[in-house]
Write a structure and sequence with these properties.
Strands 12-11-10-13-9-14 form a 6-stranded parallel sheet, sandwiched between helices. A 5-stranded mixed barrel has the order 1-2-4-6-5. It has a two-stranded antiparallel ribbon with strand order 7-8. By secondary structure, the protein is an alpha/beta fold. The radius of gyration is 21 Å and the shape is globular. The chain has 2 domains: about 70 residues, OB fold (Dihydrolipoamide Acetyltransferase, E2P) (Beta Barrel), CATH 2.40.50; about 250 residues, Rossmann fold, CATH 3.40.50.
Length: about 375
């Protein structure tokens, strides 16, 4: 069950528009900081009394060590004055209304099966794949317009992501769309299908990258992980006339055997759950690692499923990331030096997507 405590705000530090870190005091003693999502609770100020959700921190879960401010007791009322009549966080005490981008787009003209017009759609399963995919795409397609679609398999508020903040500030992504129960993007979508349509029709995207926000749910079982939504993105892109590019999850430092080489996540997503054909870039690796990945691909029957496995020399991805000035990490804080293949696999997807556009332009 959830756990809540009353606290006093002793200081505030703004992360970005709409999100603030609050220093909290519990019964006069300092505690972990709390995050304030102003779309939900409005701003807080030093001296305010607040109710805080402390569940995840008490359980030692991966929320970055933050509590979440639920309500400001120093306010008598709150009206966010948002437009629209579609609800997110539906049927919970925190439900709020928004205008769905699908409402603005209305009924599509023509054949929905060609809605995306061949637009590349990079689909990933872990938030840390976003940065290498985005910077590599723009490196090879500097005139491109990449739109990030954040799904709801991990963190729900987009503003929690430091990665997105960096990519927006540096111009690597041209816009954001949050779909499902995720919220806080430049546009809000009801579904991944509507989000992809909006990326092209409303944002003028040359490509989209679809990955959940920070965090992922996993149970150590074959089907109990939210990364399975990567298959939904692949299927949506394929059914709407896009060109899916699937990021392979590759690791040689993860202590869990099921993630060694090509992760069981990728094997299940591509071998079982994906119904549409995807291009799956595999970075060039040393012989032993390559054999481990390629043998797994063969055992999982990914080629028989119709996926196109392409080997990509993605060694320059590491330099591209370093030149960006952002130091990404993946599970357990592993860096590019620890896990170069993980980041090269994500970057390879960006390079392949950029190349697809060039081929389309030439045609």
């Amino acid at each position: 069950m959830s756990k809540f405590r009353r606290a006093k705000v002793t200081g505030v530090r703004r992360w970005d528009e709409g999100i603030t870190e609050a220093a909290l005091s519990f019964d006069g003693e300092p505690g972990r900081p709390g995050l304030v999502l102003e779309e939900v609770t409005a701003p807080v100020e030093p001296g305010d009394e607040v109710v805080v959700n402390v569940t995840a921190v008490d359980l030692g879960l991966g929320t970055g060590g933050y509590h979440f401010v639920l309500w400001n007791l120093s306010r008598d009322s709150l009206d966010t004055e948002a437009s629209g009549h579609i609800m997110k966080l539906r049927y919970t005490p925190l439900q709020f209304n928004f205008e769905a981008v699908e409402e603005r787009l209305g009924m599509a003209e023509g054949d929905l099966a060609t809605e995306l017009g061949g637009m590349p759609v990079i689909a990933g399963s872990v938030h840390s794949q976003l940065m290498p995919a985005a910077v590599s795409y723009i490196e090879d397609r500097p005139d491109g317009k990449l739109v990030y679609v954040m799904t709801d398999g991990g963190c729900l508020p987009l503003k929690f992501s430091n990665t997105v903040r960096f990519l927006r500030r540096e111009g690597y992504i041209a816009g954001t769309i949050t779909c499902g129960q995720a919220f806080g993007g430049d546009a809000e979508a009801v579904s991944i299908y509507g989000a992809l349509s909006a990326a092209r029709r409303e944002f003028g995207a040359t490509a989209a990258v679809v990955i959940m926000g920070p965090g992922i749910i996993g149970t150590g079982s074959s089907l109990g992980f939210t990364g399975l939504e990567q298959a939904v993105a692949i299927n949506a892109a394929g059914s709407l006339g896009g060109r899916p590019v699937a990021i392979a999850r590759i690791s040689f430092k993860d202590r869990r055997e099921r993630h060694y080489g090509l992760s069981h996540h990728s094997r299940t997503i591509l071998g079982v759950a994906s119904l549409a054909r995807a291009v799956v870039p595999i970075p060039v690796m040393e012989a032993e690692k390559r054999d481990a990945v390629m043998n797994t691909i063969a055992e999982a029957g990914l080629k028989a499923k119709g996926h196109e496995i392409v080997e990509v020399d993605a060694r320059r991805v590491i330099d591209i990331i370093k030149q960006s000035g952002f130091g990404p990490t993946t599970m357990e804080g592993r860096t590019m030096d620890d896990e170069p293949e993980y980041f090269m696999a994500a970057g390879a997807a960006g390079l392949v997507a950029a190349g697809m556009e060039e081929a389309a332009d030439e045609g």
